[in-house]
Amino acid sequence: MTFNHVYVSSANILAVITVLGFSFNFAVLYVIINDRKHLWKPINLIIINLTIQDIFIAIIGCPMAFMAAISHGVFWTELKCKWYALIMTTLGIGNIGSITVMAIERWLMVRMSQTLSVRKAFMLAGAVWIYAFSLSLPPIIGWGKYGPESLNISCSVEWENYSSRNASYIIYLFVLGSIIPIAIIIACYLSIIQHLKKSTVRIGLCKKRDMKVIKMVVLMTVSFIITWTPYSFVALALCGFNYRASPLVLVLPCLFAKSSIIYNPIIYAFLNDQFVKSFKKFFQINL
To answer: How many domains are there within the chain?
Structure first.
């Protein structure tokens, strides 16, 4: 596949991700906000946080990458690339942060018989943004470096920059932005599974509706890991093993990671009966 084909194909894929990602996430956000009576619950407020992050990716990240693709990578200036990378890194870390909070909320509900209040859910949503900025901001102030990636279609951390400051930042980013959140998520669900296995009356401890929410959060977690793992592997290979990939191998993981904004609203819609009812009501769908 030639560079020209890669750029054209990437632009087409990004256009699809933009339209679907924005439409699906906006629909979820619109319905939750407008049906506060039934959907204004702590877990759904974290969903709102995740949805807002995905909408920003759809209206900022994908369109700018689309422009870069149709210009064959000459779209970026140094300043534009740096701030794009900051925004996208913040939103990506915010995604895993929101999903981690959802896993903790499920753990509290099942293991500790505690539910978050709406106020605490808002506070945790704000904490996710602070957490995300704490991981994305260092390259702006000199620790680490942002630059073009994927044939200049996107911008992110300069994975191939081997300076000690950049290497230490990459370790910081991977440990706090990937390894620890995933470890917390896995620990939460292993604890939930262990607890449910010990129960002789599962429905009494965890209602059918609550089990659906657990399945929803698990699927969102799995979806996030699947879509971001190829990108993480390529980034690590470039960073630590002096890997030299073909244009297609460089671009595909980046596009696959961006496509994650499509799946969360689909998972949420299919596993939330009340959302489906509210969706049909607000969009006047009679099925």
So the answer is: 1
Q: With CA atoms as reference, report the closest residue to 153 among 231, 224, 72, 42.
A: 72
Domain membership of residue 202 (yes or no) is yes
Tokens standing for 35? Answer: 């049906």
> In this structure, is residue 28 part of a structural domain?
yes
Using only C-alpha atoms, the chain has a radius of gyration, in whole angstroms, of 20
**Binning pLDDT at 50, 70 and 90, where does residue 207 land?**
low
- Looking from the CA of 89 toward its CB, the CA atoms found within 13 Å total 30
Contact assessment for residue 144 and residue 136, using Cβ atoms and an 8 Å cutoff = no
The CATH number that applies at residue 125 is 1.20.1070.10
Contacts of 51-56 with CB under 8 Å at 24 or more apart are: 51/25, 51/264, 51/265, 53/91, 53/94, 53/95, 53/98, 54/21, 54/25, 54/91, 54/95, 54/260, 54/261, 54/264, 54/265, 55/21, 55/22, 55/25, 55/26, 55/29, 56/87, 56/91
What residues make up the domain containing 257? 3-280
86 in any annotated domain:
yes
pLDDT band at 88 (very low <50, low <70, confident <90, very high): very high
Q: Does residue 136 lie within any of the structural domains?
A: yes
